[in-house]
Amino acid sequence: MREAVSTQAPVGLWRTAVQKATWQGVSIALLATVSTVASMDAAAVPLFARQTGQNCQACHAGGHFPDLTPYGRMFKLTGYTLGQRSSLPIAAMAVFTATSQNGGTGTMANGQPTFNTASLFAGGKLTDSIGMLAQYTFNNYQDGTDDNGQSGHMGSDNTDVRYAKHIINDQTDLIFGFDANNNPGVEDVWNSSGAWGYNVVPGSVGTGSSVAPILLGGLGQQVVGAGAYLYWNKTLYAELSGYRTGDGVFSFLTQQQGGQGAYIQGTSPYVRLALTHDWGTSNAMIGYTYFDADVYEQPAGVYSGPGTYGNTGGPVDEHRDNMVDFQYQYLLDPNVVTFDAAYTNEKIFYGSGGLGGNGGVSDSINEFQAKVNYTYQAHYGVSLSYFNVTNTDNNGLNAANCVNPSNSTTGQCGTEGWTPDVYFMPVQNVRIGLQYTLFNRAYGTTVNATAYNTTMLYAWTVF
């Protein structure tokens, strides 16, 4: 589930001189970050830039990572194997934030500067046909909300290993391959799902909802999967994969602690289809994703009858997700535009004797996300995102998770709102931005929704 946010009475954003001082401290930290990275050779910074000899804009639309260009998608589909194998196949990422929420507490209350997260990346070209991207991440505040006794956590993050072949002749341009990963959707090259998708800046509020379709990050670093894919004539993409619980010899790819991660029954199918078209300086994609996961209701403990749960038996809830998505890109320097939209519907079928004692009852979650991003000269950018999450609660399970007191009995925990983001990229591997998330509806109601409005200043660097 997505983390709950405090509902204390609203406070001003920069109400005191102390708060102003903290933002000044952030500015100094950001300037130091930019100076350090700018002193490096820009053409030899991230892992894949060193391998391909290309700058960041070649793979990322307008340099706005992680949005991929056609070249970036080709690089990923061909197994991260383009270019020469690097003698230093590692890179790092760090994110610094200062967040102020109207009704927040701790670091969310006053814009206190925070070292949010850091990642180490390894991989790239291993052979002419095999490549990978492995991410290992440290989250300074594991809950992402405040500093009330929370400690940092380090563990495996997104991992994607590929074997790929590219066949080109007078009639055919075919890429096919095999993929193994630990997050459904991390292999996608249009970034529609939770792995690299909507509002991906680490530490951002995102949709703020306590409910979400399981496809949108619900099983990340808790499962392992493998499958096959093909991309034919730059027109048709098709993939079929299967996911299982990431335990035993695969536990190093997960972030499970003490058996608290999700456990799925059997193999969960993942199907991805997309039609694409390139013309002039534009390209577009329309796609469909299907994911079906049977998840044990509670992984901790052993099932011993109705009302108790475990990964060795007991009630299993089926999460059946269907997503349709669209992307359009305009790529002509100095102007770059990317528009993404995705609608995901999840049906949840509760197991007999399960939570709430209402086996056979079903619920649904619907999530719509859209974002338009514009960059100029690969230095200046602005984006606007929209989100709308709704749900039913026929099983009476979500009421306790809806933290907004005015809606604590309905179980409708969805949110709706907007996130404008203005950013500057002084060098190709650093993005400094200011984003504001405005909630029209929070946790199922418009009452006191503005208490969740959040301002975040961030610096995101990859080197």
From TrEMBL:
Keywords: Iron, Metal-binding. InterPro entries: Cyt_c-like_dom (IPR009056). Coiled coil: none annotated. GO terms for molecular function: electron transfer activity; heme binding; metal ion binding. This is Putative outer membrane cytochrome c. Residues 39-141 form the Cytochrome c domain. The keyword Metal-binding applies. It comes from mine drainage metagenome. The keyword Iron applies.
